[in-house]
Write a structure and sequence with these properties.
The chain is α+β, with helices and mostly antiparallel strands and 302 residues long. It contains 13 helices and seven strands. It has a five-stranded antiparallel sheet with strand order 1-2-3-7-4. The chain has a two-stranded antiparallel ribbon with strand order 5-6. The chain is flat and about 80 Å long. The chain binds flavin-adenine dinucleotide. The site of flavin-adenine dinucleotide has 9 residues, from α8. DUMP binds at residues 109-112, 120-124, 196, 223.
C-alpha cells in the first residue's frame, strides 16, 4: 500500500468525523469518502468531496422546488432519456473532488482533459518521493505490430529481465542524483525547481482533481475504453466503480449509451441496413475504406 502509517491515521480520522447536514448525501459515496483505492504499484484515487446524487440530476432537469424525485422509476427513466439525447447540463450539477497519485506520464494524458480544476503537488516547493512506476511483468509489453499507438504481447525471457533492470536502475540513478543535487551537506544545493528536471516520467506526482459528472463521463468514456493505455485505464476503471456507487442510475445509463455503445457513420449504417435486407456486402461494394471496414467488422463481431 502506498500510504504511510501516519497518512493512514489521518485518513481514518477524516473517516470518523461526521456532521449533521441538510444537504443531499449519496449513501454509496459516503462509503468511499477519503478511502484510498490503490492503483498501479504506488498510486491511488480517493474521494475528498462530492456534490449531488441521481435525484439532483432530475431536480435540475425539472428545475424543481423540492427534491426533484417523482418516483424512483421516473427518475431512472428521466436520467436515461437525458443521457440518450445528450441533454448534458443536468449531469453538470453533480461534482466530485478526488485526490489522485499517478505517474507523471499518466498525468500528462490525464491533464489533457481541460474541463476540470486541478492543483498539483509542487516539486518547486517540496521534494518528490522516491517512487517510480515499474510495470508488472505481464504489463511489460512489446510494441504492437498493427497499431503504432498500442502494445502487443508481454516481453519474455532475457529481454523482459533486461528491460525491467533498465527501468529500475535508471530510476534509482536519476533519483540518487536528484537527492545529491538538492542536498546541502557541504554545498549550496541546486534549487528543487531545477533538480527535478532529470527525473524520469515514471516518477509519481499527486493532485486534487475536481470535475462535474458530465465531464467525468467524457473522461471515463475515453480512458476506460479498451483502446486507452493500460496505465490510465486502471485509474478510469477504479473511478467507474466509485461513480457506479455514487449515481447508480446515471452510471447505468452511461454504460448503456456511452461506454458500451458505438457510433456508426452514415455509410456504416447504410451497410448494416443492406446486410439486414439480405444483401452480401463486402468492403469493395461498401463505400468504406479498408480501415473503416475493419473497424465496422470489429463492431459487428464484438
Ligand atoms: C486514444 C487517445 C489517443 C490520443 N492521442 C493523442 C495524441 O497523439 N496527441 C495529443 O496531443 N492528444 C492525444 N489525445 C488527447 C485528446 O486529443 C484530447 O486532448 C483528450 O482526450 C481530452 O479530450 P477533450 O478535449 O474532449 O476533453 P476536455 O478538455 O475535458 O474537453 C471536453 C470538451 O470541451 C470542449 N472544449 C474544452 N476546451 C476547449 C477549447 N479550448 N476549445 C474548444 N472546445 C473545448 C470540447 O468539446 C471537448 O471535447 C488522445 C486521446 C485519446 C483518448
Amino acid at each position: 500500500m502506498p500510504l504511510s502509517p501516519g497518512q493512514l491515521e489521518e485518513i481514518e480520522a477524516q473517516r470518523n468525523q461526521t456532521a449533521p447536514t441538510r444537504r443531499v448525501v449519496a449513501p454509496g459515496m459516503e462509503a468511499h469518502l477519503y478511502t484510498a483505492h490503490p492503483v498501479l504499484d504506488h498510486g491511488f484515487v480517493r474521494v475528498i468531496d462530492y456534490m449531488g446524487d441521481d435525484a439532483a440530476i432530475c431536480q435540475a432537469a425539472r428545475v424543481s422546488y423540492g427534491k426533484g424525485t417523482k418516483s424512483v422509476q421516473n427518475d431512472e427513466g428521466l436520467i436515461r432519456y437525458l443521457m440518450r439525447h445528450w441533454h448534458s447540463t443536468p449531469f453538470e450539477m453533480c461534482e466530485i473532488k478526488l485526490h489522485v497519485k499517478l505517474p507523471v506520464f499518466v498525468a500528462r494524458q490525464w491533464i489533457r482533459h481541460r474541463t476540470a480544476n486541478v492543483n498539483e503537488y509542487s516539486a518547486r516547493y517540496s521534494i518528490l518521493d522516491r517512487e517510480f512506476y515499474i510495470p508488472a511483468p505481464e504489463n511489460l509489453a512489446a510494441q504492437s505490430e498493427v497499431n503504432n499507438q498500442g502494445r502487443g504481447a508481454a516481453l519474455e525471457g532475457e529481454e523482459a529481465a533486461r528491460v525491467l533492470e533498465y527501468l529500475k536502475a535508471d530510476s534509482a540513478r536519476a533519483y540518487d542524483h536528484y537527492e545529491e543535487m538538492i542536498g546541502q551537506d557541504g554545498q549550496q544545493g541546486l534549487a528543487r525547481e531545477l533538480a527535478r528536471m532529470n527525473l524520469p516520467a515514471n516518477i509519481y506526482t499527486q493532485w486534487y482533481w475536481k470535475v462535474d459528472l458530465h465531464n467525468l463521463f467524457h473522461f471515463l468514456r475515453l480512458r476506460a475504453d479498451a483502446h486507452a493505455q493500460y496505465e490510465i485505464r486502471v485509474y478510469a476503471d477504479a473511478l467507474c466503480k466509485v461513480v457506479a456507487d455514487w449515481v447508480p442510475f446515471a452510471y447505468r445509463a452511461f454504460e448503456d449509451y456511452r461506454l458500451g455503445a458505438v457510433t456508426l457513420s452514415a455509410q456504416m449504417l447504410a451497410c448494416l441496413r443492406r446486410m439486414l435486407a439480405g444483401e452480401a456486402v463486402t468492403q469493395e461494394n461498401s463505400g468504406l475504406t479498408a480501415r473503416e471496414w475493419r473497424e465496422f467488422q470489429a463492431v459487428l463481431a464484438d
